[in-house]
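Hey,
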Amino acid sequence: MIQTISWQQFIVSMAGLLTIYYAYVIIMYFRKELLDKKSIWVSAPLKSSKNFPPLKENKWEPLIIGFMETMVDLEQAVAQSKGDEKVFSDRVLEIWSGFEGKREPVFQRIATLRLRAKIENSGLATTEKEIINLLTTNLI
């Protein structure tokens, strides 16, 4: 009997049986949602923007954006220093002093880690401790 059934007949039969099975499952488990015409067939009206409360001012958002821009500048400073530690440290101090969130420990730590990773590939002999000193001293 198995030899008389072709693969095409088997696949068509299985597809039909699976379709019937999944239709049954959908009807049994989602009957209420299917019969509730409002949930599927009628879309809810869109709320106008007048009904939404105003967004709170996020004090971190401008700092994060400024930090991202500062990090780009710091990474460029590493590339532009070409191994000269004096040029590097002067440029880092100049860039970091213009960043408003320079006193926040989280920004200092992330900047230290990113600079350390960039420095390893640049040929500078600056240590992590020296980077921390650059970022934490002379904070005006």
